[in-house]
Design a protein that fits this description.
The protein has about 200 residues and is of the alpha+beta class. The protein has helices spanning about 5-15, 50-60, 85-100, 100-105, 160-165, 190-195, and strands spanning about 15-20, 25-30, 35-40, 40-45, 60-65, 70-80, 80, 115-120, 120-130, 135-140, 150-155, 170-175, 180, 200. A 6-stranded antiparallel β-sheet has the order 2-1-5-6-9-10, covered by helices on one side. A 4-stranded antiparallel β-sheet has the order 3-4-8-7, sandwiched between helices.
């Protein structure tokens, strides 16, 4: 798996869930399909009068979620921004050409109510529950930063192996200390809760 494949899977799914935060700090989510994909960015369309647009202009933070029929989850965490005014028509026309249904929603020049946002810097997480053991990885778009998650076993480990017996994905290896195979870890916390000497830390 790599970033390019994640973006292609998102494009094939088509309709993605976009989550934002409103002015009261409450989460908001909606489905968006008016999206254009480049190798180093995604562009999407919404109308200026929508709450979605206002939330993006005021805050910009967005999480995008995609789920495939193969039990794969792809999550993009980013900050979106409106493209410069002189580029709006270019990207709007591209999106309308790729998504013909939009001409029924915004016929003729009514499409000018739209605004195009861009994401060119993001953290992209891939999580596949359809394989055994599960597989996960994290990629960056445009030099985005990766937030550490999950658990690690520290030097306090006494080698009792209890964490290994409690791991549902069998992704803990013996060693001094024992080691979690991060690409197969569920982040469930079972090892953390069952370590008798508290040698496991949450990232």
């Amino acid at each position: 798996m790599d970033l390019a494949t994640c973006l292609k899977k998102m494009e094939l799914v088509g309709v993605l869930a976009f989550a934002t935060v409103d002015s009261d700090g409450a989460p908001q989510i909606r489905n968006i399909s008016a999206i254009h994909y480049e190798s180093d960015a995604i562009y999407f369309f919404t109308a200026r009068g929508k709450n979605f647009c206002r939330e993006l202009l005021e805050d910009g933070r967005v999480q995008i979620l995609c789920y495939t029929k193969y039990k794969e989850m792809i999550r993009m965490s980013a900050k979106a921004y409106a493209v410069p005014e002189e580029e709006q028509a270019k990207w709007r026309d591209i999106i309308f050409e790729e998504q013909p249904y939009l001409a029924n929603v915004y016929p003729g020049d009514t499409r000018s109510i739209g605004i195009i946002f861009c994401i060119d810097r993001a953290e992209v997480e891939y999580f596949n529950l359809g394989v055994n053991p599960i597989f996960r990885d994290t990629y960056t778009l445009g030099g985005g930063t990766i937030t550490k998650k999950g658990y690690n076993i520290t030097e306090k480990c006494i080698g009792c192996g209890k964490c290994r017996t409690k791991c549902p994905q069998r992704c803990i290896e013996e060693g001094k200390p024992y080691r979690i195979l991060q690409n197969h870890c569920l982040h469930c916390g079972n090892c953390y809760e069952n370590c008798p000497v508290k040698a496991i830390v949450r990232e």
